TrEMBL record:
It holds the Pfam family GBBH-like_N. InterPro entries: AlphaKG_dependent_hydroxylases, GBBH-like_N, GBBH-like_N_sf, TauD-like_sf, TauD/TfdA-like. Its cofactor is L-ascorbate; Fe(2+). Keywords: Carnitine biosynthesis, Dioxygenase, Iron, Metal-binding, Oxidoreductase. This is GH20273. One of its GO terms (cellular component) is mitochondrion. GO terms for biological process: carnitine biosynthetic process. Pathway: Amine and polyamine biosynthesis; carnitine biosynthesis. Residues 21-92 form the Gamma-butyrobetaine hydroxylase-like N-terminal domain. Belongs to the gamma-BBH/TMLD family. It comes from Drosophila grimshawi (Hawaiian fruit fly). One of its GO terms (molecular function) is metal ion binding. Residues 128-369 form the TauD/TfdA-like domain.
Length: 391
């Protein structure tokens, strides 16, 4: 490989030219100094910088001399602080600051690019996975996690009608997320229920647990018994698609729902634990680049406290009415069968169900659990690497 080295002095960039057909790879000089690979600066076994420089970072250090070692295929640099660094070409190629390479890394290593979908597109994005195969095959597990990350919804079929199904599945990913309702929770009609989900009445579209700052990421619902009544149908909507519609058609409503903090709360007790959870955040949560990171919506868990100026209240209700209308219009409907495990992105999807008749001979019983996205994405990356999907 013939590599030519040059510098952009104005931008303080090192440029590597591998071929005339490809644009030069670019690397900020200060970043190269910070990421020196020598044993004094980097520890291989921890894959991290050594701590001696943690309390001192000198941005005045400048590149003095630069060269390319063709024999070792490394970039050699001497710095103004008398330090010397060497960078392998393969390492540099992975970290090229070009826009195309940064986008490739974010898709391949950070998180796969999400694809938003309407209710009419449900059959196109719908995919089923076999429970036993997920327990036995790493490739199947990877494909399930990937589909769940991209589309926010996947159905697992043929699970045993046993109470350890969700734990086994969660353990294949990492571990369950414990909440104030325990590791797992049971959803069925209960007299004197303290949670709206434990009623046989219709359950409007919502996200689970918006009152947590660190909201559970992946919801898993295992159907043990299904009501034979006409009701009990699942409702799901890709709320990121709803946010797209708001952004395009109702920009003022989008602005209100992405900027107005809402008080979400859950006050009560479950078993022997009493709790009083509160979190304040908008319905549509955005990152620094304006991309969606989380949807909060649950009418029962929206507190009567609304800690905003009074003149912001009516505009919020008017915007929220648009959101709810669009979410219901975009919902897909289906009915799970015993042995199905419905899995979906709780940061993205709003879900609910139609009402159903509940009697001693007509019971709907669902077991639920959570896995955090940090754990799921970690497993996704480990599997991709182990199965050679990064190559």
């Amino acid at each position: 490989m013939l590599v030519q080295v040059s510098r952009d002095l104005q931008q303080q960039l090192v440029l590597l030219h591998v071929s005339a057909e490809q644009p030069a790879m670019q690397f900020p000089e200060i970043w190269l100094r910070d990421n020196c690979r020598c044993p004094k600066c980097y520890m291989k076994q921890t894959r991290s910088r050594l701590p001696h420089g943690w309390n001192y970072l000198d941005p005045t250090v400048r590149l003095q001399e630069i060269s390319w070692c063709a024999e070792q295929q490394t970039l050699q640099i001497e710095w103004s602080d008398d330090h010397q660094s060497s960078y392998p070409i393969s390492w540099l190629q992975e970290r090229d600051f070009s826009q195309a390479n940064r986008a490739r890394y974010l898709r391949a290593y950070y998180r796969p690019e999400q694809r938003h979908w309407s209710g009419q597109q449900y059959e196109l994005i719908r995919r089923e996975f076999q429970y036993q195969e997920l327990l036995e095959s790493d490739e199947a597990l990877l494909q399930w996690l990937h589909h769940l990350a991209v589309y926010g919804l996947a159905l697992v079929k043929q699970a045993p009608l046993e109470e350890d199904v969700l734990r086994k599945l969660c353990n294949r990913v990492g571990f369950m997320r414990r909440t104030t309702y325990g590791d797992e929770w049971s959803v069925r009609a209960q007299p004197g229920a303290s949670n709206y989900a434990y009623l046989a009445a219709p359950l409007p579209l919502h996200t689970d647990m918006p009152y947590f700052e660190y909201k559970p990421g992946v919801t898993l619902l295992h159907t043990l018994q299904q009501s034979d009544s006409p009701g009990g149908w699942n409702l799901l909507t890709d709320a990121f698609h709803v946010a797209d519609l708001l952004r395009q058609r109702y920009p003022s409503s989008f602005h209100v729902l992405s900027q107005t903090p809402v008080d979400w709360a859950d006050i009560g007790s479950d078993k022997e634990l009493s709790f009083h959870n509160i979190w304040r955040a908008p319905v549509i949560n955005l990152d620094a680049n304006g991309r969606y990171v989380r949807i909060n919506h649950s009418i029962p868990q929206r507190d009567s406290h609304f800690s905003v100026p009074a003149d912001q209240v009516r505009p919020w209700y008017e915007a929220m009415a648009v959101f709810i209308r669009l979410a219901n219009e975009q919902a897909c409907t289906f009915k799970t069968a015993p042995g199905d495990v419905l899995t979906f992105d709780n940061l993205r999807m709003v879900h609910g169900r139609t009402g159903y008749d509940d009697t001693d001979h007509n019971v709907r019983h669902i077991l639920g659990a959570f896995v955090d996205w940090d754990i799921a994405y970690s497993r996704w990356r480990v599997l991709k690497n182990a199965l050679g999907h990064y190559k």
